[in-house]
Hints:
alpha+beta; three-stranded parallel β-sheet; 22 helices
Amino acid sequence: MSPSRTLKKHVILLIALILMFLAPTALNAICLEDSAHEVTLPIPAVAQSGKESFGVISYLTVRVVPGSGHVYIETWPLAEVDMQASARIAAHIAFEIANKYKDLGSFDSWDYLYSVRSNSPIMGGPSAGAAMTIATIGALLEIKPKPGIIITGMINPDGTIGAVGGILEKIDAAASINATTFLLPYGQLYVNKTVMEKYTIGPFIYYKTKTVTVNVRKYALEKYGIKVHEVLTIYDALKYFYESLPVSDTISHIDMYRSALTFHYVNSFLKNSSILALNHTQEYLNTTLSKMDALSRIFYRDDIEKAQYLIQKARELINDKLYYSALSLLFQANTTITYMYNMMEYSTQGDRYIEDLTRELNNTIDFLKSILVRSNLTDGMIAAQIRVIDAVDSLEKAGEYYKEGDIYNAIRELSYAEERLKTAFLWINFSGSLFSSDSIRDSFDDELSFATLLYAYIYSMYGSHYADQVLRYLELSEKAYAMKFYGGAYLYALEARAHAESFLDILGISSSDLLNKIAYVRYETMREINISLNNKSIIPLLALAYFEYSYYFENKENDLELAFVFTKLAKSWITAYMKFGTATYGNITLNNITLHTSKENSSSNESNGGSIGESSGDRLEIRAIIVAIVMFAIFLLTVYLMRRD
């Protein structure tokens, strides 16, 4: 055989081997292309050049392919605020909605790829969240959106569309691509704009700035012929983008949601706890007053009046069946009384008293850590965890004040920590649902990421003053996570998000529109609470507590901002209960400290392979709670004896 023929044979063999190697990859690429679902939407954004802000159009492409639940995103140029958290929330909400129209398997059956392209560096990643959700729904269902529609708004984890900035600039951008309809978050039909006003005095020309309120709907229609519509939830937006998709909007049902404002659920744990706390606090105040001489009563007059006022307000709230709200006021009263008590003890014992009290509080914290770091947590334990974190935080502050020689504030922080630990023991007594620490920890990263994203957005758009409160909860969340208090870390992340979302949603909104937003979220919360109670045998105490607290701030304090915050928290927590809460089939009651298990729940559990209450994990949990109660009694006795010395 000639050398040339041999070489030719080897080349053919090599090509065959290469084709055999590449064939599966090529086939997979072809299949991936065929199975890919893709939607592209124009999205309005705000860019900045120097001190000037202006609207630009970016293009969002969402591609959904068979995969394993990964969410990928690329932006060019890089956005000033990361969009990753918004993309993850958009993907989850979109899948949940699309799966109602078409069997898509599970969320983890797909990979979600987001690409954002713009000619200018854009500001404010969260404002693309609603568009991401809309596009993902279309990609999953393989339907194309109607052209000429533009939407701006964050996507919140509860499916509501959150407020954003730069509305007028974004309408200008929408006009540049001949958009016909502009969708904006509910409550943002009016925005404030700073304008320069020219006036003359004699031969001199002067300029001054003033703030004017702009009717967005009128501005868009008269200037560009664009129709503007409000959207409260993602369902409101779907009907504009996908006319063939049957949806029920939410805005048309606002009046129905307002009926949820009077919802009440009486929980025996909260009721009994508030009544016992009221009696204890009144007795505690009387005992403390009996130890005061006339001069001390004058010195502590403001604190005495504050405690008396809080006790009276708590009594009224108990009569109104607002038990969690009453407990909150009684905690403030007890903290005030404890401060007076500790100040009087310090006046006789000096620095030794502060050092002894600090040592005892730290010992109590160490004990609580030992029983609250568990693989399974009750909701009462999660509530106890955040109270321990609060106490740790206050002890650190007390130490700083003490080093600076500020005894008054040091003792105030110590008193707060002391009362916070007492309430931690109280909450351990309750068990309305069981949570897996691993499940909470797995969900924690997404919650913290989104809360951090909102913090960065608020900080970049409105400054540190408005973002500081959100940052505070983020820091507490990370502190709790470092202590392996995963339930407490999750709760603090929810609080950070609730405060951030509420701040953005309240900007420039009227009281009437805000009440409607509160009503919608509260209605959805109430609906899920009823499902939790009736279908899952779970008492969602944390959701119920925050639900009631929102009602208190709205109707008793006339503070709609805090009412909205706690409505958001209630919704977040009922979602957590529905997602990974399980029934405990038992409840440690406050009055007799015994475990109650219904026969119905026991028999149901046995059919599933054994009672949860009979597991070694739950027996350990019950023993831990009993030990906690005994240690709490020892803690109180130690503090009492220490004060007598």
